[in-house]
UniProtKB/TrEMBL annotation:
InterPro entries: Transthyretin-like, Transthyretin-like_sf. Keywords: Secreted, Signal. It is found in: Secreted. Belongs to the nematode transthyretin-like family. One of its GO terms (cellular component) is cell surface. It comes from Anisakis simplex. The lineage of its organism: Eukaryota, Metazoa, Ecdysozoa, Nematoda, Chromadorea. The keyword Transferase does not apply. This is Uncharacterized protein. The keyword Signal applies. It comes from the Eukaryota. Gene3D superfamilies: 2.60.40.3330.
Length: 94
C-alpha cells in the first residue's frame, strides 16, 4: 500500500490506499538494525493499525495516527528478521 524512509530526525509520513471488496488489516512494518549486535539482516517491527485509522471509500484519510517516539533497542515479542537486498539506503525529507 505504501512504503517510505525516515527523515534525518527519524520522522516519517506514510499514506496508502487500496480498493478491496473485503476488510483490510493494514500493518506498519518498521525495518531497522538498531542494537542488533552485528546479526545479519534487518529487524522487523510489525505494528497493526487500529480500525479507526482506516477510511472507507476515499483515498484521503479521515484520521492521522501518531505512533509517537519508539525506542528501537527493545526486542519485541513478535519481532522477526528479513534480509533485504535491494532496499535503498537513504533518508527522505517530506
Amino acid at each position: 500500500m505504501a512504503s517510505g524512509f525516515t527523515t534525518s530526525n527519524g520522522s516519517f509520513l506514510l499514506k496508502g490506499h487500496e480498493w478491496e471488496i473485503s476488510n483490510i488489516d493494514p500493518v506498519l512494518k518498521i525495518f531497522h538494525k538498531c542494537n542488533d549486535k552485528g546479526i545479519p539482516c534487518e529487524r522487523i517491527w510489525p505494528i497493526a493499525l487500529p480500525a479507526k485509522y482506516i477510511t472507507f471509500g476515499s483515498e484521503q484519510p479521515s484520521k492521522i495516527m501518531d505512533i509517537g517516539i519508539l525506542n528501537l533497542e527493545v526486542v519485541l515479542f513478535r519481532e522477526s528478521r528479513e534480509c533485504v537486498v535491494n532496499r535503498q539506503q537513504h533518508s527522505t525529507d517530506y
